[in-house]
Every structure is written in C-alpha cells, then in structure tokens.
Amino acid sequence: MQPSTWALVPLKSSERAKSRLAGTLDAEQRQRLFFAMARRVILALRESRNIDAVAVVTSSLEVRAFAESLNALPVVQQEDAGMSPAIEAALRILNGMHPERVLIVAGDLPLVCASAVDEIFTGQVCREHVVVVPDRHRDGTNALLCSPPQAIAPCFGSSSFRRHLAAARAANLATRVAEIERLALDLDCADDLEHLRSRAGAQPWGLSMSSGPAGDTFSGAAPRG
Fold it and tell me: Which run of H or E residues covers position 57?
C-alpha cells in the first residue's frame, strides 16, 4: 500500500542558506545550523504518528545525500528556482504516488518535535481541507497541510499566511489555522536567533551547531514532547 500522508521539506543548498544571519554567524556556523535544524525537522516528521513518508525537495546534491541518510526521499531540482516553484514541482512528482494529503514544513524550525507535528492533524472533520500553521508574527507559513495535495497552490514568502488562507477560502475548502508554539519559530534573522536563545539557551533540546550533515548533530532523536 502506498503511503497516504507525505511530508515535504524544501531545503536550499547549505552554502546559500541563512544568508540573513551573516552579521551574526559566520559561514561555517550557518551551514551547521542549517543541517542541525533540517535534521531535527526530518526526524520529527519521521516520528510523527500521522506521517507515512518524508520527502525533501532541493537542488543541492549535498542535501540530497543528507536526506537519504535520514531515510527521506530526495526530489532533486535542476536549479534553485525559489521555494514555491520547487514545492509545486515536487508535488507533481509525488502525485504519481497518489498521496491523500501532503504536509509542507519549513526546514528551519529549531523547536519542532513529533508531538507538535501531530497537533496539526487534530480535529479534522473533512477529507478536503487546508490547515495553515503561521509563524510567530502571523506573517509567514511554517507548515501547510493540503488534502488533496494540490488543493491550493503554495505561495510561500512574505504574507504567505494571509495568502494561503485567502486561497483556501476562495476555493471553498474547509480551513483551519493551527497556532502551535513549537512550530511558530523559524530562524530567518538575528532577532529570531536571539528569541531562541532567550527561551531555550544556545542549544535547545539537543540542537547543536557543532557538526555538519554527516556529524552527530543531535544527542538522540527529536523529542516527542
């Protein structure tokens, strides 16, 4: 039986990731942070009781190998054309596997855990629906659940929370906003990093910047609670 619920994680190349943190972290630190968060996200998705399979869409061969090492299916793009186009292309490929629904999750969520992912699936009453998980500013979208997978077109970026809600409502889909604390923080800028440090210390719940894609970035799997 084919998996019915896929998670899809879009990841840039590690060299290009987190450029807005250049004034706070050097290139090596940003690369380590990129892989630490991506590993945490993928492991949390794999541990979720609601996710059957995980895919990673990327244009980086290094990230492809990293995804395979975590038993995630790599969907490799020829070039980095942006997050939303990459997701649309990956959804077309996953469509051949006939998933019932797809959860798109940002790869830079330092507090993510399996139980937080499972909260997204709480209270579903309709086969065809959209669940939008906003960032802590209620501007961006940190997770988007679509059933069926192409219920709405992904439109990540500035004001994506509002645009995803508008698209779902325009399509007359049952829509729910899920505000989940551990999914609300994404690391885009120095203020986000300071917010993380203020609430969790420099290495929250095993997150470390001490190793790269092949290193032991976690002291155990991402916690469930």
Answer: strand 53-58
